[in-house]
């Protein structure tokens, strides 16, 4: 029985992990920049939902679109105004630039929001659904379903729409994409905006089932990094697989090794994958 | 007199201390096939990179139908009607052959812009034109080199260009495949597309081109009909070296 419950918890956690990592994977895969701001957008999205709930009593699931749209705009602007200037420079430059911005935004967030951990507590926060003798927390299953739904929409968008095609082509071959008439400046900004919106959405979801503070961005960033490396960079299925694997490993690891080591397990996995298959489990060559 | 479609005036490109293209003037007349030849490292590909905006020129003007394009972004130049292929073929390896061509139709062409269905129709036309219809569902990475070169043709034609820049389309092909490629180039011209072709095989360029310019160390050293150019002493020097020219002269004097 305890295994069943842990399995369910793992899958629910894995779903939200996948959702957290998907935007990070997209930005890294398409632009080859390590986006330190990913966790920051996630944190800000969480605060959008938190403040909408706290100040205006808006249900957390209803403020998702606001969170996503506002961070899409912020991401688009950051890419167009700043990152675009160094996108052709070595990867290290993007690391420094986004790290600097991350420091600035997180300090501002601490100043305005304080460093307290916050969590959205809607009236239905404690509900759970009994299922074959197990209990499924209502909020977590909603987060899982929404996370998977949004990831599926992103998957469809990348595969079927005009802009999605342009993003994929840009990822595969920058020069060729330009010569096919793709405006890569615009595509980069849209990609970065989508990455920020995906981060913000998962941040909103996290603020309900878990808790956020201005400094929790680093934790989510490192999770994203681990998930992308495990699953393989640049594809959405890789993020899904990586998220589920990390969710399972963390929960079962906590069972056998004790909860103190839960966060270390991800790093052990990371090192193992880098040894065995550096491109990630579902990764393709050239994306190491 | 025919109309000038593409024109370069004093096009110069430097990489640090190296001048890869030095004050090159050229014109491409509507409907012609202009050959650009020169030994390896002469600056041929760099010149194409300047025209397409991938590596903008440091100095000089490039005009397409009278409009300055040297400061425009690559995608904007493509949409104006300038397309190119690469010497080292660059398909989107993870996409199907048809999807590769759809990219050009979807983003580069003015007519089918923004309409996936229309773009797919145009892509199918282009695949039929280059003879790749039966491969359209395969992944681009599964094609042979000759097929990939034809895919490059289809991709760039799908942007519905007025002028097509071909970078060494024959490199790495066997004699049979070269003949096919040459007849394809003629077929493209019959469709009303103007062509600028880079080549280092003399034989191919003389068969193919209406007019030829010769680059050497980034400078234009000759221009004219293929026949004239290939008998030019400077050109022979550039290709075969000073020693060869001296030897030939000596032989002439002795006989």
SSE inventory with pairings:
The complex is a heterodimer of chains A (288) and B (255).
Chain A: H1 2-31, H2 38-56, H3 64-81, H4 91-113, E1 128-131, E2 134-137, H5 138-160, H6 162-172, H7 174-179, H8 184-209, H9 217-231, H10 236-257, H11 262-276
Antiparallel strand pairs in A: 1-2
Chain B: E1 4-15, E2 18-29, E3 33-37, H1 44-52, E4 59-64, E5 67-68, H2 74-80, E6 82-84, H3 97-108, H4 116-130, H5 145-157, E7 163-167, H6 175-190, E8 194-199, H7 202-208, E9 211-216, E10 219-224, H8 226-230, H9 233-240, H10 242-254
Parallel strand pairs in B: 3-8, 3-9, 6-7, 7-8
Antiparallel strand pairs in B: 1-2, 1-4, 4-5, 9-10
Q: Name the overall outline of chain A.
A: globular
What is the number of beta strands of chain B? Answer: 10
List low-pLDDT spans of chain B. none
Mean pLDDT of chain A: 88
Shape of chain B: globular
Order of helices and strands of chain A: HHHHEEHHHHHHH
Strand order of the largest sheet of chain B: 6-7-8-3-9-10
What is the tally of helical segments of chain B? 10
Sheet of most strands of chain A = 2 strands, antiparallel
Rg of chain A, Cα atoms, Å: 19 Å
What helical percentage do the residues of chain A reach? over 70%
Q: How many E-type strands of chain A? A: 2
Task: Give the amount of beta strand of chain A, in percent.
Answer: under 5%
- Strand fraction of chain B: 15-25%
